[in-house]
Structure formats: C-alpha cells, structure tokens
C-alpha cells in the first residue's frame, strides 16, 4: 500500500510539473513578445519595456520559470497586471463562491444519479427503466448554458421562487441569500453532470446484477433486487468513486460557464474575465490551481479506491 | 476477440457494420440526425430563407409564423436562418476537430505503443497527465494568448480528445501488435510504417471511430459553450452559442426564441452520442445485446474529457 501510494505520489508530482511547464510555455514562451501582447497594439515602446521589466521578461526563460515556481511553492502566484492585487488572495476570495457551488452541484448530482441509476437498472426492460435511461441520455446532451436558462425561466421568471442571477454583495454574511443565489446554478450543473453519472451508475448496476455473487445471493432466497442492493451496491459504489475524479473536472468546467450565466463572482467567472483582459499572470495562476486541483483529486480518488477495495489491497 | 482477418476481410466486414448500425434504433436515430444537420449545413451554403445579416426592425420578435417558421430575434433576423447558419459552423468545428483529434490520437497512440520501452512508458504517463486537462481550460489557455476564434475551439477539442483517443487506442494497438498476423507481416518484410497503416490501424479502427463520434459531440458542446463565453465564433458569425448569448438577456420576455438554439444543440449532440453508442455495439462482437440476464451489456465506461457547455 505504502509502495503504491509513493508511486502514485511520484506520478502526481510529475503531473503537476508537466502541467506547470505546459501552462508556462503556452502563456509565456509561445506568444513571442508577451509584453507587446499584454500592452496591446496601442502601447508605446516605453510602456512595453515597463511591462517587460515588471514581468522579468528580460531574464532567461528558465530563470523566469524558476522564479514563478519558487513563488508558487511559497503560495505566491504573482500580482495581477491590471490591479496589482495578489492572485492567490483573490483566488481564495473567489473560492468562497466556487467551492460551495461545486459541493452543492456534487450533492445534487449524487442525490439524483445514484437512486435513479440503480432503480433504472432494476427496471431494465420495463417502461420506467427505459424512460429513465432515455431521459438521462437526452439530459447528458443538453448544453449547460441552455439548461441554466430554462431553469431560470421556470423557477425565477415564472414561479419567482429564486433570484434569476447575481450573488449578495455581503457574501456569506447573508448566508440565506447566498445559498438561495447558489441553488439554481447548483441544480443546473448537478442535473447535467448527474445525467452522465446516472448512465454510469446504471451500467455499473447492470453489470453487478450479472455477477455470480448476486446470483448466488438470489439463489439463497433473496429477490434479485434485494441481492443487488445488499451485495451489488458496494461494488457499484466502488466504480462511482473512480468516475468521481472525472466528475470533479466536469464540475469545474461547468462552473466556468454557469458562473458566467448567473453572474456569480467565482473563480470561473474571474478566469473568463482575465482571459478577455489578457491578464496573463492571473490566467497562469488560475489555470495552475484548477488543473492542480483536478490532478490532486485524481490522486486522492486512486488512493481511496485502493484502500477500500479489498481485491486491490490483496493484489498489492 | 481474435484478429485473424487480413485486410480484405476487414473491408468486407465494414459493410456489415453499416447494416448492423442501421438495424439498431439508436444507430438509425444517430445517422438520421447527423445526416440532417449535414444537409442543413450544406443547404445553408447556397440558400437560407432570409439573409442572416439583414436587420429588419419592423419585424422584431415576431412569433413563429408562415413567413418566419421559428420567429425572429431582437433585430428582426429570422431565427431559422440563424439556426441553419449555425449548423454550418457546428459541422465545420465538428469535422475540423475530428481530423485533429484523429491525427493527435494516432500519433500519441503509436508513440505510446510502437516505440522502445522507455519512450513508450513515458508516453503512457504523459497521456495520463494530459487527460486531466479539460477541453474548456485548454481553450481558455489558447484564447488568452491568441484571442478566441473557431480555430481555438477546433484545436482545443482536437488536442483534448486526441489525448483520450490515444488513451483508449494505445492498449488496443499493444494487443493487436502481439497477433500472429503482425508477426507474419514483419516476417514478410514490411516496415513498421507499413505494418501500422495496413494492419494495425484497420484493426483498431472500430475503437477509434466510436471515440471520434463522441469527440464530435463534445466539439458541438464546446463550440456552443465557448461561443457563448465569447471565445469561439465571433458575434458576426452564425453560431448556436452566439445566438444563445444574444437571446439570454430577453429570456423573460421572449422565452420561445431561446428554445430553438438549445434544441438544435441538444438534438445534434444526442445524435452523435447515440451514433457512437451504436457504433460500439455494432462493431464490438464481444458485446451482448443485453437480452441474456447472465451477460448484461458491458458497462459503458467511456472517457469524455470534461466539457459541458
């Protein structure tokens, strides 16, 4: 186990390194003259030179990378080119919206995907099962923006239960208003992501139904569905954990678009704005944090899977 | 699954897939949808009911009627015309990113399967790392340097899905590589490249085509999502994502207009997804049809680099 954890940890570190090199290379080296790019075509040579000086672009590329990474390891992602505020503190502040949004979306997705997925597997070949399967296939094809618009239309415009867009200015000092502002966005991401998860849960359950141990349990007097729930579900749970890593990446991407639609002041919306402003230092930091987060989640998922799956433990 | 077939047999079995595909309801639906979108896109090159750029303020927010089957938007442009133009953009992005994904996928998979052990294994690790980059983040990264355009969408989906194609294709290539007929081909003096083209690629084609179909579905979603964010199609280009972004502000007053572009995207993506599912079912002889309770359909674990838009 420890051996496996160490190998996997090495892979994680290599992954983080590759990610940082790719991001650095794309944003700093590929564009040619970054200072001109940031300054725009209107910038005077003096302004461009000032930007170059500020970013340390006159130093060799390797030294630039080393100083960026040195800062990252100390938790310093540099300062915004536009406002001069530290990128890390701004990320922390925006995370107060994005992290709760992600968690709420994940809860919505799990709450609706797992029961319905198992149920539709039990009802395979019957009307209810086919209907759920068809609905989830369709939902998985719906663009998140549009799903959000339709939910706004129904729950905010027609029924008036929830606010259409925006986040309370006071943030979490007004917890009730903040949660109300996040309900529709979380529902949107949760339903679309959950539709994909549902399809996965369904096929994992179908696979479990066909396993020998479920058949044996059924032969010993349980009904097939009881056998599935008592003996099959732990295995379905295992496979859900493996896809959870993917789902997290999906939640992040979903939040980029959904924060834009609902004008929520989160990391995704900040990224979209910064890309538009060509604030490359901020974009660099945000991309590193987001991909790093995805890689770390993947690492944790693999470890947890290893710990709780007795077959994998014994194989080690 | 044994691969004892030589090239002509592979070619023969291709006709069988098509028939099999048509026999599956999902396959039939997929083929019809994709064919319709392609047809609309082609027609829009030569004819649309109205000129997509003409602004007619007298005909703002017209409800669906005989003159305007889907109504008009806030500047009096015909929505059906805009949707038809959007189909063209969608097809362009789907095909473009499909081509790039194929090239990237084949190159990465070949490097990860056919090279000496050291490069092979590092390639596998690299593929595992690259898979963690969601398409949308790749696109944002490219956009921040070169600005947004449809090419950004094509390249980012192409690269993102190329990596996942490589991840699925690499083990397949490794497996086929150990077949007797590869040994025979090598013994008869074919070079590595010849073996790759004539024997390996045709044999991994089924896995490959399935992934390609799904990657095109992702391309459609990515185009819509990025165009919505303003980093895909420019506001003057016809695009379903741009249309959604334009109509968003009026959703409370003119909800019906917002329905059409979303519906177009959903149906197209659904068609491509189902086509991929059906292709997998039609080309994979080990997959049971699910009627035998002891052998239920194999779990559909498919790797979609996460872009939901």
Largest interface: A-B, 67 and 59 residues
Q: How would a textbook summarize the main sheet of chain B? A: none
* Strands of chain A, total number: 0
What is the CA-CA span between the terminal residues of chain A? 7 Å
Write up this protein:
- The complex is a heterodimer of chains A (316) and B (309).
- Chain A has helices at residues 2-29, 34-39, 45-55, 61-73, 87-122, 127-139, 144-158, 175-209, 212-219, 224-261, 267-277, 280-308, 310-315.
- By secondary structure, chain A is mainly α.
- In chain A, helix 5 (87-122) crosses helix 8 (175-209), helix 7 (144-158) packs across helix 10 and helix 11 packs antiparallel against helix 12 (280-308).
- The mean pLDDT of chain A is 82.
- Chain B is mainly α and 309 residues long.
- In chain B, helix 8 (192-229) runs parallel beside helix 9 (240-248).
- Classes of the chains: A mainly alpha (316), B mainly alpha (309).
- Chains A and B meet through helix 1, helix 7, helix 8, helix 10 and helix 11 of A and helix 4, helix 5, helix 8, helix 9 and helix 10 of B.
Furnish the topology, listing elements before pairings.
The complex is a heterodimer of chains A (316) and B (309).
Chain A (H helix, E strand, L loop, with lengths): L1 H28 L4 H6 L5 H11 L5 H13 L13 H36 L4 H13 L4 H15 L16 H35 L2 H8 L4 H38 L5 H11 L2 H29 L1 H6 L1
Chain B lengths: L6 H17 L1 H22 L32 H36 L2 H14 L4 H12 L3 H28 L2 H8 L4 H38 L10 H9 L6 H29 L26
Helix pairs in contact in B: 1-10, 2-3, 2-10, 3-4, 3-6, 3-8, 4-6, 5-6, 6-8, 7-8, 8-9, 8-10, 9-10
């Amino acid at each position: 186990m420890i051996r496996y954890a160490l190998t996997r940890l090495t892979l994680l570190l290599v992954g983080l390194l590759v990610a940082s090199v790719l991001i650095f290379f794309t944003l700093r080296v590929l564009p040619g003259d970054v200072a001109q790019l940031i300054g725009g075509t209107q910038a005077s040579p003096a302004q461009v030179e000032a930007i170059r000086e500020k970013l340390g672009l006159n130093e060799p590329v390797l030294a630039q990378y080393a100083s960026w990474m040195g800062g990252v390891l100390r938790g310093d992602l540099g300062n915004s080119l536009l406002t001069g505020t530290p990128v890390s503190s701004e990320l922390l502040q925006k995370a107060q919206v994005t992290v709760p949004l992600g968690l709420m979306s994940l809860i919505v997705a799990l709450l609706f995907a797992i029961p319905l997925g198992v149920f539709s597997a039990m009802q395979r070949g019957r009307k209810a099962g086919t209907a759920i399967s068809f609905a989830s296939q369709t939902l998985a094809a719906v663009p998140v923006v549009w799903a959000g618009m339709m939910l706004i239309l129904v729950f905010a415009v027609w029924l008036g239960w929830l606010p259409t867009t925006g986040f309370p200015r006071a943030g979490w000092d007004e917890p009730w208003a903040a949660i109300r502002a996040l309900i529709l966005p979380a529902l949107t991401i949760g339903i679309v992501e959950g539709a994909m998860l549902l399809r996965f849960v369904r096929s994992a359950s179908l696979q479990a139904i066909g396993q020998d141990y479920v058949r044996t349990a059924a032969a010993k007097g349980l009904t097939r569905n009881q056998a599935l729930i008592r003996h099959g579900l732990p295995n379905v749970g295992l496979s859900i954990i493996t896809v959870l890593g993917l789902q997290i990446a999906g939640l992040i991407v979903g939040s980029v678009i959904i924060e834009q639609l609902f004008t929520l002041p989160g990391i995704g919306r900040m990224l979209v704005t910064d890309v538009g402003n060509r604030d490359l230092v901020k974009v660099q930091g945000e991309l590193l944090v987001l991909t790093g987060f995805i890689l770390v989640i993947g690492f944790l998922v693999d470890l947890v899977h290893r710990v709780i799956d007795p077959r994998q433990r014994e194989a080690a | 699954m044994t691969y004892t077939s030589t090239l002509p047999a592979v070619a023969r079995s291709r006709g069988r897939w098509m028939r099999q595909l048509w026999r599956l309801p999902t396959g039939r639906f997929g083929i019809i949808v994709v064919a319709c979108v392609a047809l609309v896109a082609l027609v829009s090159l030569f004819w649309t009911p109205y000129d997509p750029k003409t602004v007619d303020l007298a005909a703002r927010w017209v409800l669906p009627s005989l003159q305007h089957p889907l109504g008009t938007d806030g500047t009096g442009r015909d929505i059906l015309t805009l949707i038809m133009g959007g189909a063209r953009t969608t097809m362009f992005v789907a095909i473009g990113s499909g081509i790039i994904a194929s090239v990237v996928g084949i190159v990465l998979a070949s490097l990860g399967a056919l090279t000496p052990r050291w490069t092979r294994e590092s390639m596998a690790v690299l593929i595992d790392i690259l898979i963690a980059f969601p398409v949308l983040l790749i696109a944002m990264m490219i956009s921040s340097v070169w600005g947004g355009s449809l090419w950004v969408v094509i390249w980012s989906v192409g690269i993102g899905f190329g990596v996942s194609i490589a991840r699925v294709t690499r083990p397949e290539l490794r497996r086929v590589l150990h077949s007797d007929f590869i040994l025979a081909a090598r013994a008869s003096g074919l070079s590595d490249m010849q073996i790759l083209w004539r024997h390996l690629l045709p044999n991994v084609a089924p896995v490959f085509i399935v992934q390609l179909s799904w990657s095109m579905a992702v391309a459609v979603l990515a185009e819509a999502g990025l165009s919505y964010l303003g980093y895909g199609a420019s506001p003057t280009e016809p695009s379903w994502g741009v249309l959604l972004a334009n109509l968003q502000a009026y959703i409370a007053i003119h909800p019906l207009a917002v329905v059409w572009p979303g519906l177009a995207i959903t149906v197209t993506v659904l068609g491509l997804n189902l086509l991929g599912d059906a292709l997998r079912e039609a080309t994979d002889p080990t997959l049971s049809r699910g009627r035998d309770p002891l052998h239920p359909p194999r779990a559909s674990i498919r790797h979609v680099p996460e872009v939901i838009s």
